[in-house]
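chain below, 199 aa
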Amino acid sequence: MCVFLCTFATAMSNDIMHFVDVLSEGGTLLYPTDTIWGIGCDATNAAAVEKIYSIKKRDHSKSMLILCEDVAMVERFVSPVGDAVRSLLLNGERPTTVIMPLAQNGLACNLAAADGTIGVRIPRMDFCQSLLHALGRPIVSTSANLSGRPSPSCFSDIDASVKESVDCCVPAVFEVAKGAASSRIVKLQPDGTVAVIRP
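prediction:
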């Protein structure tokens, strides 16, 4: 059993490094998250972000969220995190995306919404955490569907054109949240209160 587990862990580590290479080189990745399947890229690479808009046929007025490994990464690339936001990011009963002001430099210039905010989530999923840790930067996460189409809850639901358009597809074996729903979305208001955008 130990030999099997060690071999699997080594194989997963090799896969992670391959996916990180794709992201580091400006590629797009079809991958599972703690909610639904997403299309991602290095969130600091504007050209890669542009590829995702093109793949999804998505209007630029519809911003995309990012995944961060931990609060430290959020504060490094987005903005300082108060107690209320920290609790939402780390302790929510379900995966929660927090829309917050983008105050730091470093993210791609075509990621933020028109009001200067961006959606942020810290995924509770080993695969995503390993990917984020190895890359060392936030990863874009937007549903793996053409704009206006239903979000895919499992790999088999993803449109063939999306699979063919990305630079790399993570194998379905990494899927752990089959049938999961999109995240809850809340927005940090200027007065410090939190408004629920999607329950």
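The first strand starts at residue 29 and ends at 32. Residues 1-8 have pLDDT under 50 and may be disordered.
thats it, cya
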